[in-house]
Each structure stands twice: as structure tokens, then as C-alpha cells.
Write a structure and sequence with these properties.
about 200 residues, alpha/beta, 7 helices, six-stranded mixed β-sheet, Rossmann fold, about 15% strand
Length: about 200
């Protein structure tokens, strides 16, 4: 069985600036020709109207992608097009689905796509839809834990989910995706959000 964190799984993450970096457990860039490696390409959804407005956006809120995001997704597609993707997994939120579908179309690939509720965005409870300033004023303790001290983050008062709850629902989806790779050499695309990718 393949588990997360083992060298046979590499993590390829696209930063907010759509820069691609890959690492394995030893933090070494893997050779593209490496065998017996399932590669996971985590793609953050494109920038949205709420991102531009400085609003928290999690599992229960959504806003449209900005026009510039589509240009950035198409640029990213040019870099990823030479890679054959075997499957795509996407959060049920529209911003993640639009990002994934736009990327797949722009890469000119036919890729099976599965919507996975387990990788939906972080449930931020009452923080969702509020501006960064509003959250800082109204929920300073929760915000501090969320941003700077995940082990102290207690979102129960705001109706959110904890980091362990996030991991508990996310990890099985990723493990299943890797286990379903019978070739041990698939490239898998996962479209989600920045908060999930950064923790």
C-alpha cells in the first residue's frame, strides 16, 4: 500500500503565483523519468472576486474567478500540457471545478474527472464572506490560531472545522487516489484551494 509521505509519492504544488515546485519526502526534486512514482499535482483555484476584496472564502462560500485568472490558467496549461494526466480530482466548489475544467481544456487532454467532497475547501464557519479586517476585529482568537498556531485553533465558537478534521477528511481521498494508480506511475491532478495546499 502506498501512503502519503513515502518517497514513491511526489508532491507538485502550484503557488499563488502559479509557480510549480515538486518535492518528495527528502525534499529532492524528482527526475521526470523516475519509475514507480505517483505524482500528485495540486492546483490552487484561480483568484476570485472575494480574494480581490480580501474576504475569507471556504467550504460554504464561493465567488467567480477573475478574468485574469483564466489567462493565468491558460499559461499554466502550456507548462503542464506535455505531462499526460491520468485522472483529475476536484473539490465540489465551483471555483475549483472551473479552474480544473479550464485547465484540462487548455491542455487539450481528455482526463477523467471526479468530484470529491473530501477535498472541499476548509470550513471557516462564520469567518466566511467577511473581510480580513472584520474577522480580525470580531474573531481575533480564532484568527490567530488559524493563521499562526494551528495546534491552538478552536473554531467551535464560529462553527468551523479544526485542522485535524480537515486532515481526517482529506487524507483518505488522496490515499485512495494513489492506491487506485495500479501503474505506480500516474500523474494525478487535484484542484483545490490555497489554504488546504499550504498546511
Amino acid at each position: 500500500m502506498k501512503l502519503l509521505g513515502f518517497t514513491m509519492v511526489s508532491f507538485c504544488i502550484l503557488t499563488d503565483k502559479l509557480e510549480l515546485w515538486c518535492k518528495n519526502r527528502d525534499n529532492i526534486r524528482l527526475d521526470e523519468g523516475a519509475k514507480n512514482v505517483t505524482r500528485l499535482y495540486f492546483v490552487r483555484h484561480g483568484k476570485t472576486e472575494w480574494n480581490l476584496q480580501g474576504r475569507y472564502q471556504g467550504a460554504n462560500g464561493d465567488s467567480p474567478l477573475l478574468p485574469q485568472s483564466f489567462d493565468e490558467i491558460r499559461l499554466l496549461a502550456k507548462d503542464l500540457a506535455p505531462i499526460h494526466f491520468d485522472h483529475a480530482y476536484v473539490s465540489p466548489l465551483p471555483r475549483a471545478q472551473v479552474t480544473a475544467k479550464t485547465l484540462i481544456t487548455a491542455m487539450h487532454q481528455t482526463i477523467p474527472l471526479s468530484v470529491e467532497p473530501g477535498i472541499r475547501e476548509f470550513n471557516l464557519g462564520k469567518m466566511e464572506g467577511k473581510t480580513f479586517a472584520e474577522v480580525e476585529a470580531k474573531y481575533p482568537k480564532e484568527l490567530h490560531g488559524f493563521r499562526y498556531a494551528p495546534d491552538q485553533y478552536d473554531p467551535h465558537a464560529i462553527g468551523g472545522e479544526t485542522f485535524p478534521e480537515l486532515i481526517a477528511r482529506m487524507q483518505p481521498v488522496i490515499q485512495r487516489a494513489v492506491e487506485y494508480d495500479l501503474s505506480d506511475s500516474a500523474n494525478l491532478l487535484l484542484s483545490a484551494t490555497g489554504q488546504r495546499l499550504s498546511h
